[in-house]
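User: Second chain of the day. Same drill as before.
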Amino acid sequence: MQIYEIDSADAAELEGLRVAASRRAWWHQYGQLFPADFLRFLGYEAGAQHIRSYCNELVDGLLQTQDYARAVIRGGNTYVRLTEMERRIGVRMARQERLNAADPLRLTTIVAEGALRQQIGGPAVMRAQLEHLAQLATERPEQVEVRVVPFTAGAHPALGGPFQILSFPSPRLPDLVWQEILTSSDIIDQSTRVADYSVTFEESRECALSSADSLALIRRIAKEMT
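Assistant: Same format as last time:
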C-alpha cells in the first residue's frame, strides 16, 4: 500500500477486507446443507448495505417469522429431516441479525398481494407473519420499507419471479442480483443485466401502493385471517 501510495481511507478499507477474509464466517459450517452458490449469496448478504427485493409468492426471508419459515421449508422440502429443518430455520434467523447489527442492513421489499394472502402454515401463522411485517414497517420506516403490489395493479414488469438486488458500502463493489427459482439459483454480476433488474424494480415500485397504503392493506389482510 505504501508503494502504490494508497491513501489512508482506502488502506483502512483494504486492511478490513484482509482481516475479514482471514476469519471463518458463520455460514461456512453449513457447507453440507446448502449449495455453494447459496453460501456465496450469504456472504454477499452479510456484507450488503441495502437490499431491494421483489417477492411474488413468499415474504422476504429477512422478514419471516420462525413459524412462517418453518412452514415454508416444510412445504417445499418434504424429504428434509427434522434436525436438518431446524438447522435451515436457524440459518434464516441468523441472516436476520443483519437487521439489528451496529451497521444495520437497509431493506426495501416489494411484495405481491398474493404472497400476503397465501396462508402459509395456516391462518394463525400467517396472521402473526403479517403482524410482524406491519410492526417492522411501523417501527423502522427508514430501514425497512414494505410496498405491496395489489391485485388491481394488473401486469407489471417484475411478474417473471422473485429477485434481490444487493448494494454494498464500498464504491469498488458493484451491485449484484440474486435470483432463486424452483430448480436453480443464480448470482448475476454482469452490469447490463443488473441494470435491467434495477429498472424493473423501480418500475414495479411505481405500480405498488404507497408505504402507508401498503401498511393499511397488510393490517386489513391480517384481520381477515381467522
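The mean pLDDT is 91.

User: Great, on to the next one.
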